[in-house]
Specification:
11 strands, Purple Acid Phosphatase, chain A, domain 2, globular, 6-stranded mixed sheet, UDP-2,3-diacylglucosamine hydrolase activity, lipid a biosynthesis, lipid biosynthesis, 25% strand, 5-stranded mixed sheet, LpxH-like, Metallo-depent_PP-like, alpha/beta
Length: 243
């Protein structure tokens, strides 16, 4: 059956070997059977620049290269952990970079896809950082710094994020429903697919009097979250990382 795959929030890194193994199996066994693969951000736990050629990164690049060379297109939307991933990575792997929000035609339906962090407007502290990090000057400044320093900055940023988020109420870090409705209305769609919140679910609701749905991909910390879309419908799946 013709189908398209969506993944997000894998947070790949050398500290998570089980996730890496599950990802490599997925890329070798499941992804080649799809018509296309969409990666909706936070592929890496932290991406500090396309010039970081450590062996781990080369392994991940090769998995994407093998897939695209087999004829399966790969589309990527930046997340809040990998917004420094750039054109060099895309050219080396055959991946296609998409804007923060993209409307696609999937088996006859217009669907809006995105990472999802921009929908969490109640988290004012994060939104302030996001405006800086996605601006024109901050990424350029970071990429101009030595790799060793970027690694230090990324490590401190992860530690700070974990500390801050422990003290935030859950609703603050979740999607603001009104913002999701706004972007869907603006895009003219009734289906939105995103990640970021690590809360896999299919939310059914009404948008301007018509049925609508918001599909949230889960992360890969403890299980493999995967959305399979075909002409017959959508299935949000999860599976064990091992086996």
């Amino acid at each position: 059956m013709r189908h398209t795959l969506f993944i997000a929030d894998l947070h790949l890194g050398e500290d998570w070997p089980e996730i890496t193994s599950a990802f490599l199996r997925f890329m070798a066994e499941e992804a080649p059977l799809a018509e296309a693969l969409y990666v909706l951000g936070d592929l890496f736990e932290a991406w500090i620049g396309d010039d970081d050629n450590q062996p781990f990164n080369q392994t991940i690049k090769q998995a994407f290269t093998n897939l695209t060379r087999s004829g399966v297109p790969v589309y990527f939307i930046h997340g809040n952990r990998d917004f420094l991933l750039g054109e060099r990575f895309a050219q080396q792997t055959g991946m296609q970079l998409l804007p923060e929000q993209q409307v696609i035609d999937l088996y006859g339906e217009k669907i809006l896809i995105m990472h999802g962090d921009s929908l969490c407007t109640r988290d004012e502290q994060y939104m302030a950082f996001r405006r800086k990090a996605r601006g024109w000057w901050w990424p350029r400044l970071m990429l101009a710094l030595p790799l060793w320093y970027r690694r230090r900055v990324a490590k401190k940023a992860r530690q700070r994020s974990l500390h801050i988020n422990r003290n935030k109420p859950d609703y603050i870090m979740d999607v603001t429903p009104a913002e999701a409705e706004r972007v869907m209305r603006e895009a003219g769609v009734s289906t939105l697919i995103h990640g970021h919140t690590h809360r896999p679910a299919v939310h059914q609701f009404e948008l301007d009097g018509h049925p609508a749905r918001r599909i949230v991909l889960g992360d890969w910390y403890s299980q493999k979250s995967l959305l399979v879309v075909s002409e017959g419908g959508m299935a949000l799946k999860s599976g064990a990382l091992t086996g």
